[in-house]
Amino acid sequence: MCLGIPGQIVEVTDAANDLALVNVGGVRRVINIAFVIGEGRTANSCVGEWVLVHVGFAMSRLDEQEAARTLALLHELGVAQGEMDDMAKVGELQDELREELRSAP
C-alpha cells in the first residue's frame, strides 16, 4: 500500500531542480518540492513547512497540527512505520545508485 505521509522540509539541497531534504519520522530523504512551491515563491521559502510526501514528491502542504493528527492516525493504524521503512529503503537505493554513477567511467 502506498500512502502519503507527513514530513517537514528541513533544507533545500538543489533549488534549481526543486529538491529538498525532508524529515519523515526521523528518516531524512531528498524529495522533489515542485508541486508545493507555488507561484511567486522560492524553494527556500518552503523550509520548515510540513508536506504530504508520496513516492519522492511533496504533493501538498499541511499545517503542523494536521501533520501531527495524520501521523498519530497512521501510527494507530500501524502503517506509518512500514511507510518510513520503505522511504529508508528507497533512499538507500538512491544513495547506492549515486555512488555507482560517480564511480562509472
From TrEMBL:
InterPro entries linked to this entry: Hydgase_assmbl_chp_CS, Hydrogenase_HupF/HypC
Q: Which Gene3D superfamilies match?
A: 2.30.30.140
Look up the domain of life of the source.
Bacteria
GO BP terms? protein maturation
Q: Which SUPFAM superfamilies match?
A: HupF/HypC-like
User: What GO molecular functions are on record for this protein?
Assistant: carbon dioxide binding; iron ion binding
Q: Which family does it belong to?
A: Belongs to the HupF/HypC family.
Provide the protein name.
Answer: Hydrogenase expression/formation protein HypC
